[in-house]
Specification:
11 helices; alpha/beta; 248 residues; binds S-adenosylmethionine
Length: 248
């Protein structure tokens, strides 16, 4: 049932988190190392959003799409989730989550050409789906107007509307999705000690962002805009999330 991480022979020899972290450090794999060091903030961000939206995770099935180091899964478990799943295409993240005992799947979820869908067929019956900064919605917007992006999406079989519909199909009655889009890279670095945040990824014109192609599709699929949750939203880096609640 669980994904086997087979294309890095060293992973087979690793059976604890400390050794995986050591390997990432030896390889200077800063993508992993940086996320691993942001644990406290990521935990607060998840907890704040869940509490603010009154989402009850007790006895529930949880899925994170694009979890990174997956601090959301740890907090969801602490909040009572009985089953925690994740999908990501980075083997280091998946290996980490498997070591922590979660149901983690290695897959590129923007391609459906060679698979029956975007998400692993084993994933379904979920009560709460969380996805933060894990789908580039600048690319989604470009896919609507730019021929190069459109062709890339065609080759992968990516269509944002279908992606959303498939995500909704994994939900149990009464379930919910909280989707925070990933934004584009800018030239100037944004520093905000209050969030805390140092990033090149943020939105300049939030009003246009909220009215853009990807947002229209989410609204058409009955998502509503979520703003101003402390330490979850950020006025520029994470200005708007999208919430969907399935009928009970
Ligand atoms: C910017 S990180 C966000 C991580 C985490 N959600 C957080 O808030 O810290 C993006 C995550 O999505 C994953 N990801 C991005 N595009 C993906 C794709 N097409 N298929 C699978 N995973 C993807 C990356 O590997 C990474 O774990």
């Amino acid at each position: 049932m669980f994904t086997k991480i087979s294309y890095d022979p060293l992973f087979k020899l690793i059976n604890n988190e400390a050794d995986l972290v050591k390997l990432a450090k030896e390889r200077n794999f800063n993508y992993f190392n940086n996320y691993y060091s942001e644990r406290d903030h990521k935990r607060v961000s998840f907890r704040n959003a869940i509490s603010h939206l009154n989402i009850n995770l007790r006895g529930k099935v949880f899925l994170d799409i694009g979890p990174g180091t997956g601090d959301s899964l740890d907090v969801a478990k602490e909040m009572g989730a009985v089953r925690c799943m994740a999908v990501d295409m980075e083997p280091f993240f998946i290996k980490l989550l498997l070591l922590r005992g979660y149901q983690a799947y290695l897959k590129n979820y923007t391609t459906s050409r060679l698979t029956s869908g975007f998400f692993p067929a084993e994933v379904g019956g979920v009560d709460f789906i969380w996805s933060k900064g894990a789908l580039n919605c600048v690319d989604v917007n470009n896919g609507a107007k730019n021929i190069v992006r459109k062709s890339k999406d065609y080759i992968k079989g990516f269509d944002f509307n279908k992606w959303i519909i498939e995500m909704k199909s994994m939900l149990n009655p009464g379930g919910a999705i909280l989707f925070m889009p990933a934004v584009g890279r800018r030239k100037e670095k944004l520093i905000d000690k209050k969030y805390p945040l140092t990033t090149y990824y943020y939105v300049d014109d939030v009003e246009s962002w909220d009215r853009s192609f990807f947002s229209e599709i989410l609204i058409r699929n009955e998502f509503s805009l979520i703003k101003d949750i402390s330490k979850y939203n950020h006025p520029k880096a994470f200005p708007t999330a999208f919430l969907y609640r399935n009928e009970a």
